[in-house]
Amino acid sequence: MADQKEVWQGRLALSTAIMAVLAALTSLYLGKYSSRAIMSQGQESDQWAFYQAKSIKEHAFEISRTQLELQMQAQQGLGGEASQAYRATVDRYKNEIQRYENERKDIKAKAEEIAKRKLKAQEMGGNFAYALIFLQIALMLSSISSLTKRKYLWHIALIATIGWLFFFVDAWLLFY
């Protein structure tokens, strides 16, 4: 009987130590992906601010181009050189508008990609948090089992570890 008790206590101690190591690893991944989500949020905000700045510049060129076109129409009697200068400026503004439009498209695509990475990191971090909760419950039950010598608490702790496994795997595969 004493040997069985020692074997059980050895298994209890070993499983508790393994749970503690798994909790440490889970905490590491939780921090890593939570930090990634926060960093991605900042990068995404920067990209959208850049997008907005490009939109404002594009709009300013559109207004200037429209003003020049209206001035050109109002002053139809301008000489060839002045008319060419107006047209050259209008064409330059059109090119600038097109450039800003293309840059905005690129910035938008980059911002949307960062947003996807952010959402994935948030989901992964959340699942690691759930996994950690299950391990903390399992560790607590194992500790109480060790103190009270109640084997059924250890079995419940092992079952709680299955909850950790589910959320830990889900954090990587995102199937749930």
Features:
176 residues; 3 helices
CATH domain class name: Mainly Alpha
Tell me the distance between the termini: 45 Å
Number of helices: 3
Number of strands: 0
* Major sheet description: none
Describe this structure in words.
The structure is a single chain. The chain is mainly alpha-helical. It has one domain: Helix Hairpins (Orthogonal Bundle), CATH 1.10.287. Helices cover 94% and strands 0% of the residues. It has 3 helices and no strands. The model has no long low-confidence stretch (mean pLDDT 93).
Q: Topology, pairings included?
A:
Blueprint (H helix, E strand, L loop, with lengths): L1 H73 L5 H69 L2 H23 L3
Quick rundown:
The chain has three helices and no strands. By secondary structure, the chain is mostly helical. It is rod-shaped.
